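WARN retry 2 of 3 for item q-0093 after timeout on previous attempt; input resubmitted unchanged.
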Amino acid sequence: MISFIKEKMSTWDKLKAEKRPIFIYGMGDGALKIMSVFKEKGITLSGIFASDDFVRGHSFQGYRVHKLSEIEEMVDDFVIVLAFAAGYQEIVDRIISIAEKHTLYVPDVPVAGNGLFTYEYCVENAEKIQQVYDMLCDDYSKKVYANIINFKISGDISYLSSVTTPKAEIYRDIIKPHLNETYVDLGAYNGDTIGELLSFTRGRYAGIYAVEPDRKNFRKLLKFVDDMPNIFTFNAVAWCTDTELPFASKAGRQSAISASSNTLVQAVSVDTILNKKSATIIKMDVEGFEREAIWGASNTIAKHSPRLMISLYHRNEDIFEIPLLIKTINPDYKLYIRHQLYIPAWETNLYATL
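OK item q-0093 returned
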């Protein structure tokens, strides 16, 4: 088996074997997904707690929502399962401090798609996982890759803290923006990543193509880029071809294509919107449909070799399928993987440059 995979027992197996009470920290979609796996695997849940600011005597899925201090008063020794994502230093620090006092697991449940990321899943995909590891172009990328996989199996946050890289460092050392970029932003949200890029180019650029399917987010994007020259905005899904797709709007980062939605939105490909013109940077964060977006940009990627910034964390298979796909389309790329501040392993991204 792959030598860099140290974890053999999944978070779920550890929780199944636990004799101590298990409490979920957090509410919402993450908690619902975890509770569903608990039910499937016969893991006993003792209760729910939330941050003090969110506790107002209410309940969640039939459980009274406690404060952590209340549980600490009631139970001497217990296990905590984190059920929300944290991307700010203050919240991450709070989670780390809780992990110093209690046994904490952060289960990896996919943002999109089905199945669980376990050791057995890695065994099934061992050849592809090893292929990606071997093609990464620096030792730090290999360390990040190994740690992310071990985290996804074990739920141990120490694997993340040792490979977290500041965003500014990634821009400086890998992307290296210059003053004449043609930037394609897929999943442009409210313009935040456009703002990031421009902070490194002193506001200079050749052109920007921004694609955002959610209508409320798109309005925020339009407000952000108002009066900026040479910016082309598309209220559309980034896709492999030009069509219409059902879309579930959540007015946030988790809006996504959904077969259960009756709302249709336009879908466009990068190759179409560029119309044979080149791009120098393409960013993709499209909630689990990165591979479709890559195929829609395949001619641009193959011919012009733009630097790429692509999310690797939405689906279980993304961590190996996306790097392999990029190398298939353009074998000349050097591939890097970096993880930015986030618990769980969201904001783990692929970077491709010449």
